[in-house]
Amino acid sequence: MAGNPAGKVAVVTGAASGIGRACAVRLARDGARVAVLDLNGGEAEGVAEEIRAAGGTALSATVDVADRANIDQALADVRERLGPVAILVNSAGKEGFKRFLDITIESWTSILTVNLTGTFHCCQAVVPDMVEAGWGRIVNISSSSAHSGQPYMTHYVASKAGVMGFTKALALELGPAGITVNTIPPGFIDTPMTRRNEERGFFGSTVDELAARTPVRRAGLPEDIAAACSFLVSEEAGYITGQVIGVNGGRNT
Length: 253
Ligand SMILES: NC(=O)c1ccc[n+]([C@@H]2O[C@H](COP(=O)([O-])OP(=O)(O)OC[C@H]3O[C@@H](n4cnc5c(N)ncnc54)[C@H](O)[C@@H]3O)[C@@H](O)[C@H]2O)c1
Prior knowledge:
Blueprint: E1 9-13, H1 18-29, E2 33-38, H2 41-53, E3 57-62, H3 68-81, E4 85-90, H4 105-133, E5 136-141, H5 145-148, H6 154-174, E6 179-184, H7 192-199, H8 207-213, H9 222-232
Parallel strand pairs: 1-2, 1-4, 2-3, 4-5, 5-6
Helix pairs in contact: 1-2, 1-9, 3-4, 4-6
The structure holds nicotinamide-adenine-dinucleotide.
Protein name: NAD(P)-dependent dehydrogenase, short-chain alcohol dehydrogenase family
InterPro entries: KR_dom, NAD(P)-bd_dom_sf, Sc_DH/Rdtase_CS, SDR, SDR_fam
Pfam families: adh_short_C2
């Protein structure tokens, strides 16, 4: 299901690692000109180099999605070097794992700010380009934990449930402008975030054990999310908006 964003400019946040990285690489392979944004600028540049080495077009920038001025500055550079933004994938995310009574207001605010407010900032910063063009595609990466709940992650789960509601509301508002907005809630994808959580014992089980209990009998790969993302940003997905497209191996049906 090759997307057809050939020549269009795609911005991917959290693109230095895991799901965001896979989306950036996939969209570049589909023909998009990609801006690889991440807090970790060194790793982001590594991904951009990888895309260029494969014949694609990419640039990187060190961006904190919690910082609107930082985002606006980076996007001004993206517009100058690549052109107006047509596609946005919000994958930057921060996890947390704490008993409810031990969650500090600082930690609550930090997770809500990166995961939910960061998504708001990035959408608001690129939507004018899409409105001007009469075409746009936004994919927000939420989490299957917002469907299932997850103990010790009330802050994280609340932020991701917020992303789902935000996506639905924004889709209704932007539909008439030719812009679709959807969310993919990944479930159990083998990324550095997942391996960090395994090491910390957050799952009470290993990734391999969880994979064996997953209906499709494997952990998801970042490329599984990238494939869904590639479709959602394509021309032919234009009638799909405001949707929650689960990619979870059947764990949450
Ligand atoms: N891996 C899973 O199973 C899973 C499940 C559900 C949801 N998710 C979500 O998918 C997204 C990607 O997660 P991943 O597993 O690829 O994790 P990851 O840790 O591999 O990648 C996350 C990236 O986001 C970047 N980032 C963090 N805070 C940032 C900020 N303030 N500004 C800019 N970049 C920032 C990190 O530097 C990192 O490169 C996250 O939103 C996560 O919550 C992942």
